[in-house]
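User: Could you check the structure of this?
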Amino acid sequence: MKNIIRLTESDLHNIIKESVNRILKETRFGNPKPFFGYEINDKNGMLYSLEGGEKYVLYHLRFDGDSIVGIDRETNQPMRVFLTSLFGRPIDGSTIPSVRTIDKDTIEITHLRLDGDNKMYNLTIDDYFGGPEETAERDFASGY
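Assistant: Sure, the predicted C-alpha cells are below.
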C-alpha cells in the first residue's frame, strides 16, 4: 500500500532548497577548503607512475589551486603534481576526476601529471608512508 503525501508548492520548494543546500555544503562550492582538503592536508603519500615505474614519497601534502604539493623524501624539495581531467586537461581541486577511498585511512587520486612530464601518475595518500613501519622497511632494504 502506498502512502499519499500532500505537499503545497511552498513545502516542495523548501524540500528542494534544503536538498540543494545540503549537496552544496558537501562540495567545495562556498567552502575555502578544496575537495578532500581535510583528508589529505599534512598527510604523506606515494606518487607513482604505472607507465615508467617512477615512485616518490611525499610528505606534508596540501592542495594548491590546480595541484597538490608535497615535500619529496629523497631530495627534501617541494614537488608539485597537477590535477588533470580524464582527457588530460588541467582542473582545479573542486572536481577531481578519480578519487577512491581504499580503506578508512587510505585515499587514491589518479590522473596527476608532473610539470614537463606526459605520464599519468597516481597518488596513494596513507600515513604509512613516512611512518615508523615504512621507515624501518626502507632502512632495512637500503642496508642501514
